Amino acid sequence: MHRGPIRYGWPLLLALACGGEARVETATATTTTTTGEAAAEPSSPWEALSGAALRDYVREGATARLAQVQPEVTPEALNRWLDAPDEAPALKGKTVERLFDLGAVALASGELDRAEKIVRLVRAKAKNRNSAYAGNTILAEIARQRAGANETAQKAAVVAVFQELPRTRFGSSTVIFQIFQAPEQLQANLGQIHQQLVSLETASDALYFEQILPGIVTHRGVFLAAIDTVRAAHAQSEGPAEYAFPTVDLTGANDAQEIVVGVWDVGTNPELFTEQLYTNPAEQPNGEDDDGNGQVDDIHGIASDIGDTTNADLLYRPDAATLAEYKPFLRGIMDLRAGMASTEAAQRVLSLMRSADSPEALEHLDVNLDAIGEWAHGTHVAGILLAGIPQARLAIFRSAWAGEARLYHHRGPTDEELAAERANALAVAEFAERNHVRVINASLGFAIEYVANQLRHEDGVYSDDAQVMARARVIQAHRAETWRQTIAAAPNTLFVVAAGNSNQDVVEYEPVPASLAAPNLLTVGAVDRHGDWATFTNSNADRVKVFDFGVEVPSLVPDGETVPLSGTSMASPNVANLAAKLFALDPALTPAQVISVIEETADPIAEPFEGAIADEVKAVERVRAERRPNRRPGRRR
Questions:
Q1: What are the structural domain ranges in the chain?
Q2: What does R_g of the chain's alpha carbons equal in angstroms?
Q3: Main-chain phi, psi angles of 117, to 5 degrees
């Protein structure tokens, strides 16, 4: 789950928006009263940060940050490149973020030409080619404003912007107009932002909710009408071809033998996999540590909460009331994520989101949707991992800290908790080595941006954002070392991990473990049903060479229902599934050899994207053709 964990939750939709609106600014803070007396100091820094002051803060912060992340992007150079994009260098992901900050400032200031040029520059020169379709909301709002007061002309202008998008990108690029439907939603989000420490990141968010999205909501009817027009045109033409994802089913295969696989997640329902559940032969259900590994009753795997090393439950279970109220929204959240805002399930979620009209209501919604996601995630991953491999036996590793949104909600981990995380991770590695677990899927990870966002909620702990980032770097470095030790401690296990859902370069942003390199580590990105990069997938030419299906992937959730979910969390177990099949067909393979087979038999992704899609048929055929006779099951070695 990647938000900090590799998450697929609805807050990520904001990252896809990059929208804009010029509006009448709110009153700025003053330094004197009408009687000339000195004004009282604001009770919050946010009181003085509104209107033009907020725009100035974001502009100055973004410009300063650009000098840090890509020094060649000076204000003077940027001004030249806006008129001659071909002369600009490739733009890093962090550079693109700050350029969109400047685009938002320009739009909110009424500088429409400059805002558009910034978006066009990003589309032309961003290293991450998913950004070739970014900034749609900004361009649409610019077009609406330029069209004047006539709504028919506004709609036509917005339609022209939407028609620039490839059909496969249209849905996800227009979800923002479906999400925010009432001013109360914007105020609730703004109120929640104002509860955090002021930083460039929080100020940029505040700028959108204060000065950009209100205009989008006011003129929402224009955008929705334009969406309907383009959608109707799409319906009249044949859609793009779907990619054929080759799969292999080892049911009945007499040349495959039993293999142990693991799902490392925030909880998995073992009751759905009883026929394939792995049983530790050295452990008994007696409340004791029979195998001497420091874990009590680790019969089918390891379950760990911070401060609680019992193995009583391998599934995280929200309370019954939360489950009953919010589980019906799981499918709708995923529909919105995939750009399908018109489905019945998505409309239910939009109605729910519309009801969150205060920071408190929004907080309540965040917490409960996170809980439902954590409840469903691991079981869904396990179902994908086991498909077509009746020879597989499943070990379950539940790490509560891997679901960070619940455990570390609005705070950071303590040093003691980081130590407990490492102890849990090394226990998983030890279990894997002792029980010959050949593949572990870990659709989880940690991003420094998420950690920093949580730390900014700790009022009174940090005096400024420099302190926040210093602590975030300590936490991230500790976790990176935890994963290095864990992967090294189980050299015979292939760790297949999700790249993450933030549309980032994993080397530039360094999420853990996706950014690491090891001979037994394979990081997986996501493609959509057409074989193109999913709009959310993380990437990097060196670290993320393999992709698989990760949009609307059907699998089980803990109550036994089959629900399609999206994310690199779903792509990763598809590749782990293939790796398990290769080990089952040739147990003598090493993790590095399996990685080589998967990479070398994968199908290159069409430009402008990079990487390749795992091809189960080719990989299985290669292993069957190249294994030596004495490696076949039943033969003596």
A1: 10-29+41-235, 259-316+364-453+490-631
A2: 25
A3: -65, -35
Q: Look up residue 295 and give its two tokens.
A: 């874990």
Distances (CA, A) of 199 to 56, 99, 307, 449: 13, 16, 33, 12
Contact 310, 353 (CB under 8 A): no
The dihedral sign for the CA sequence 484, 490, 495, 497: negative
Q: From 397, 424, 401, 405, select the one nearest 267 (Cα to Cα).
A: 397
Tell me, what's the pLDDT at 26?
Answer: 31
Q: Could you report how far apart the first and last alpha carbons of the chain are, in Å?
A: 41
- What is d(CA 105, CA 359) in angstroms, rounded to the nearest whole number? 25
268 and 315 in contact (C-beta within 8 Å)? yes
Separation CA 380–CA 564 (nearest Å): 9
State the pLDDT at residue 343. 76
pLDDT, position 406: 79
**How many Å apart are CA 201 and CA 465, to the nearest integer?**
10
Beta bridge partners of 181: none
Reported pTM: 0.91
Residue 251, helix vs strand vs coil: coil
Distance, C-alpha 476 to centroid of its chain: 17
**Residues contacting 322, CB < 8 A, separation 6+:** 368, 371, 372
State residue 309's pLDDT score: 53
Which residues of the chain, if any, have pLDDT below 70?
1-43, 307-312, 337-340, 629-637
Are 399 and 267 within 8 A, CB to CB?
Answer: no
Helix 448-455 and helix 200-207: axis angle, to 10°? 80
Q: What is the pLDDT of residue 43?
A: 63
259-316+364-453+490-631 in CATH: which number? 3.40.50.200
CA distance readout (Å), 584 to 251, 509, 623: 12, 35, 10
pLDDT the model gives residue 338: 62
